Amino acid sequence: MKKAARIFALCCLFLLFGCQEEPAEQVAEATAVASEMATEAPTEIPTEPATATTAPTNTTIPTETATDVPTDTPEPTATNTASPTAEPTEEPTATAVPATATATTAPPAPVSAPPPAPVVSAGNMLSNPSFELGNASWEVHNSGQSIQNFYAAASNPQFVHSGQQAALQLGPMNASTLRNIYFQRVSGNVTPGATYRASAWIKIWSSSGENRLISENPGDFSARLCLNTVGESDPLLPTSVCTGFVRPLDTWQLISVDAVAASDRLSIMLVSEYTGANRPVHNEAIWDDASIAGAPSSATATPPPAAGPVRPNPIAFNPTALRDSMNSVRSMIEQEGGLLDRLYNGQGGTCAEFQGYYDDAIRSATYSGVPDDWAGIYNDYIFAVENFLATNESINSLCDNGGGTISALNYGAARTGINDSLNRLIPAIEAANAKLGG
Fold it and tell me: Tell me: domain 106-295, CATH 2.60.120.260, correct?
C-alpha cells in the first residue's frame, strides 16, 4: 500500500508539474508578448503623439490658412495697385490725344480749315489782298520779282488765316540783308491830306526744330507793317509810317498803322527782319488778309480838326508801363461795350462819347524791345487793341457820317469783337500782375 501510495503520489506530482508547464510556457509567451507590447507600446505611444504631432500639423493648417490670408491680402493689394496704375496710365494717354488735337487750332490744336477769304469790300483799295490770286499785284522790294513763296491751306492750314493761301517770307539768307519786304502800290483814288489805315494779319514761326506747330528756341526775327505816304517801298524813308516790331509766335495777330497821304499814291509794306544775332534754322513770316482803307478821323472838337489819331511809335519796354497800358485799354473797352449796348437799345449815349473811346484805343501805347518772357502778354495786348478797332470800325464810320441806326449785323460784329478782345486781354493782365508780384 505504501508502495502504491508513493507511486500515486509520484504520478500526481508528475501530472501536476506536467500541467504547470503549459501555463509556464503561456506565462513565458505572455511575458514575451507583454515585452513585445511593451516594446511596441513605446512605438505606438509616439504614434499617438504623432497624431498629437498631427495636431500641430493641424495647427500648421491654420498657419497655412494664415499664410493663405496674407496671400489673399496681397492679391487685393495687387489688384488695387493695378487699378490705379491703369487709370493714371489711361488718363495721360487720353490727355495726350487732345493735346495733339489742340495743336491744330492755335499753338498746339487740330488745325481746322481756314475760313473763306473775306470778300474784298469797296473800302479796301488793295488788289488780291488775301493772296488768293498768288503773287498778282504784289512785288518784292529791290528784286524786280513778284512774290515766290506761299503756304496752301490744303497742306498747312495753320499758316493760312483765311481762304486757300497766304504769303510766306523766309528769313533773309544773306547775312548782310536784314529784311524782306513785300509791297503793293495803290493810286488813282487816293486823296492827298486824307488819313488811311493799312492793316494785315501776321504770324511768325521761328524755330530750331521741325515741328511746324510750335516755335522751339525762337530767334530774333520780327515783323512790322508800314504805309508810305507817297507810294515808295522803303520802310526807312521819312515818308514811311510803321508799326512797332511784333513777334506773334505760332499765333495770328492783326497789326495796323495810320498815315496821312502826301500824294495820290500809297504803298503798303509787309516787312520781316532780323532784330538780333539769334537766328535759328527756320525763320518765317506769314502774311494774309491785308488792307488799305480810309481811317477814322478825329471826333473831338479839339482844334485843329486835322487828321485822326494814329497808332503811336513804340516806346522802350517797361513792364509796369505795359501793365498800366493794358489796364487802361481794358477800362476803355469795357466802357465802350456798355455804351454800345445803350446806343443799340436806344437807352442814351452819343457818337462823340463812342469815338472818344475808339480814339483812345488808337492812341494806346506800343512798345519795342519786348523780352521773350513778356512777348505772349504783349501780343495779347496788341491783339485786344487791334481786334477792337477792326470790329468796331463800322460803328465809328457811322458816327463819322453823322450818326444813324446801328444795324443788328454791325452791333453783333462790334459786340463780339469787344468780348473777344477782353477774353484775350484780361488773362494777359493777370499774367502781368503775377510776373510783377501783384
Answer: yes
